[in-house]
Write the structure tokens for this entry.
Amino acid sequence: MSGFRAAVGASSARRLLHALPSVLFYLAAGVAAYFLWPTSLGGCTTLTVVSGESMEPTYFTGDVVVARCGDPKIGDAVVYQPKDFGGARIIHRIISGDESGWTLQGDNNDWLDPFTPSNDEVLGVAKVHLPKVGLAARALTSPFVWLGLIAIALAILLWPTGDDELEDDTDDREDSSEDAPDTLTESPSVTDAATVENRSEPEAVTL
């Protein structure tokens, strides 16, 4: 009975070990979805690629800023989307105001923003700064980069490999082995001819 229980316990442990990678994968996917799900799809995260010099030296062109929804306050760098501005997003710092209307300014600007967004227009507060990541993202979206990758992939697929040469050698060997029996079948005729010649020579001598 104890052996049966031990076997059942070992089987359960093996099943848990096999299931553990899947559980960890789904858990990691859930955490990533929670933190990276964009606000445009009802999430709480906004990824913004910085363009321009208005937030230098805090952020530079090509930097990626990850903003999370929350309650902004004075001193926060926030991403906001002014109404009736074509869907453009701006990342600047709050210098005064309240949730009904914030006053913002770029760190490198001498003037105030012409917009006073409310909390409803603020997409998120800047939390994570990824320098120059946006430049790599732009490079990956370049058609020249994709054409180059496609050309490399085609070259790898069409380039002859060692396996092809091995198959050619094998085919040559098979062809030569198929020719070998023909040579063997011809040799008896030579032997027969020699026998005939040997037999005809004594007859000539007797005469």
The longest strand covers residues 90-98. The chain has four helices and six strands. Helices lie at 2-36, 133-140, 143-158, 162-206.
